[in-house]
Amino acid sequence: MTTNPLPDPTNPNDVATYRNHLEHHYTETMWEPITAFLNNVLNTAVKALDAPITLTADGRPAPPKPLAWTTVRRRWYDTIRAIARLEPALSDRSTQRLLEESTLPADAYTDVQDIMRQATLEGWSEAKTKRALSKRLIPHRRKDETTNSYANRIRTAARTTATANLGRWMDAELARTGASYKRWVTVGDSRVRAAHAAADGQEVPLGSPFVVDGEMLEYPGDPHGSAGNVINCRCVMVAGVEPGGSYAPRRVLDEADGLEDLPDDDYDGLFTGADDDTDPAGWSVWAARRAGTGRGSGRYSARDGAAEGEHRAAGSDKGVRRRDDTG
Predict the structure, then answer these.
(1) Residues 271 and 156 sit within 8 Å (Cβ to Cβ)
(2) C-alpha–C-alpha distance, residues 128 and 203, integer Å
(3) CA distance 15 to 304
(4) How far apart are CA 140 and CA 191, in angstroms?
(5) pLDDT tens-digit readout, 119-163
(6) CA–CA gap between residue 97 and residue 108 (Å, rounded)
(7) What one-character DSSP code corresponds to residue 61?
(8) Nearest CA among 153, 112, 148 for reference residue 130
(9) Cα–Cα distance for residue pair 36/29, rounded to 1 Å
């Protein structure tokens, strides 16, 4: 997958270190193509500033219509192909699907529309509008840290695909080396989401799925999982011990830990940037896409799926569930 030595599949620390390396490598790979995509969206919006001003029915200036959603979506698919050309490991269909279902292009489209609308209503100058678009859309790095919400989205995409690709490779590697069991292992810090902390140390026979928060996952980052189980996951899978062996989770968690109140960095920057809470509508977009809503027409709206159900079942009604691959 990279030039770094492949990890020992029995050593959780070795596998976790390799996952971190993959995440960094994928971040570097994705940075330029995604930044180019965002610049393209920005430049298309700026061109609309020179378009003739039209009025609404009540005589007010109408917000410019800088670009169509289908145009943004098409450019995003071009970006995904560009990323795959730079890194063949990101050309796998399951990885491509993770990127296709990212909310990043829909968020960029919505942000442009919002800024252009505000600029029109408040009479901003062209220069001020350009600055606002650039500040919102274009990611920057300072002292090796990413800044602004779209920089965090790039990191999110890299982290999610790194976990998924390593999990898929580990699944094949454990089968090749004759392992009988596989084990789910978390990073073990306070940012691990509660459902994954509960799964830490779970062992199942090779070929059987883990059950995590009521979902069946073949490995951490399994693209068939829901957003709440997959996006930004840092967990890894390693070879399990034989029945009767021993393995202690990195830490024991119970209700007294108040997990629901922990700042879960696994969700940071998912939809609105590291400093904002998760957008419920964003979850619904993911849910709608995984269910197949909006597919095939080529006209999936940036706001479609906003009411397409919750991202996970509630309370005692949670059951084992796994969505079929809908292409």
Answers:
(1) no
(2) 56
(3) 38
(4) 25
(5) 888 988 889 999 999 999 999 877 555 567 899 999 999 999 999
(6) 19
(7) B
(8) 112
(9) 12
Q: Which residue, among 274, 6, 283, 24, has the nearest Cα to 159 in the 3D structure?
A: 24
- Closest CA relative to residue 224, chosen from 271, 171, 181, 262: 171
Residue 27: both structure tokens together: 């971040």
Between helices 104-122 and 12-47, what is the axis angle to 10°?
A: 40
Task: State whether the Cα torsion 132-263-290-20 is positive or negative.
Answer: positive
d(CA 47, CA 67): 10
145 token code pair: 């840290």
Residue 196 token pair: 């994954």
pLDDT higher than 60, residue 194: yes
- Tell me which amino acid residue 19 is: R
* pLDDT tens readout for residues 168-193: 999 999 999 999 999 999 999 999 99
Beta strands in the chain (DSSP E): 140-142, 145-147, 181-185, 203-205, 210-212, 215-217, 236-239
Predicted pLDDT of residue 254: 39
Rg over CA atoms, the chain = 21
Q: Rounded to an integer, what distance in angstroms lies between the CA atom of residue 276 and that of residue 282?
A: 13
Q: Are strands 210-212 and 140-142 parallel, antiparallel or unpaired?
A: unpaired
